[in-house]
Request: fold
Amino acid sequence: MDDSGNLEALVAFVPALLAVLLVARLCGAAAERLGQPRVVGEMVAGVLLGPSVLGALAPAAADRLFTADVRQILYVLSTVGLTLYMLLVGLEVRHGGVPPALLRRAGVVAAAGIVPVFLLGLGAGFLLAPSLSLPDVPPGIFALFLACALSVTAFPMLARVLGDEGIAGTRLGTLVLLAAAGDDVVAWCFLALVTALVGAGSGTAVGATLGGGVALAALMVGPVRWALRPLGARAARAGQVDQSALAAVVLLVLATAWLAEVVGIHAVFGGFVAGLALPTDETFRTDLRRRLLDVVVVLLVPLFFAHTGLSTRIDGLTSPQLLVPLLLLLAIACLGKYGGCALAARAVGHDWREAAAIGALMNARGLMELIILDVGLSYGLISQDVFSLLVVMAVVTTAGAVPAFRLALPGGSAPALAPAGADPLQEAVR
Reply:
């Protein structure tokens, strides 16, 4: 493409960028006024910019705003944004300093939050595969992906919600974050398996892909993590992350994302394991999060929501062919995740109000769900219809989390809201 073509692409992209950021900010602010997390409004903003709303009300304007070239730029920038976002997620997966008893209870809740919904998702996948699966996707692969998508929890969003509710660092808040982190790690491991099975093809290639993924993860949490320790010590001495360290982190996450793609796993996995490799020093974590978070959340994540919204159609979900599966998926999502976590929390000693509050929070799926759906769509694992069904499920379960939590604990609960000891997760990414 010559310089004039580059200029035309820029001129076409800037109005789309302005529209995405403006609608995302407005919808995010509206969500907060309604007592919802900002991410709920931003998820809705993506749908509003898609074919079901803007495309239906002003199709000519939508076509001019989101041309094929603009969509390609959205895809590239949103992928970069997701990779950096997953770096921040990996950075927050820590459990040092947590009382062992609380860690064990969190493990019970995490298991109950993934096993029932995963098994129910598998069953629903085999049931729905004849009518909703793509012709070239085996029923087992479709069912496995559906189970992964239903099992995820909005770990980063929950960290912000717990801070807003004033319960970060309490026994209940720490338990929820640890359980959510555990569920997401397991779900992403299964998703890596699914993408390896689809992308590799033969059994030998699948083994090579999985082996490459395991080797990459081992490299990052082993030698690379050891090699990066001086960055944490340097940040602690200087009181901040300097530009050299920031450049090293950016180069690391991009290289790891590229290696993930080379071995046949999506780039976002690379971002996550790169985050696991970073130093755990509090100064390093806090300052790196401060430097990256605003750019990722304000600029890049809204682009991902817009990219997702352009692939989401909600206007056809009222047909019996899609409405029945939507209701089934919503029922499974809530019964498996909310019910499983609430019963497990009750079993490990929480009263019913506290257990209901834990189940409500664990049932939120947020941006993590949309990332998984984007991976499934890009790998050809699901159709546009299934993608749209699961986007609606993600929005509904995320929007219902905070109201259900407040309903369960309207005035707080002293035992569950007592300090948990050392707070391992503090205020995290959105």
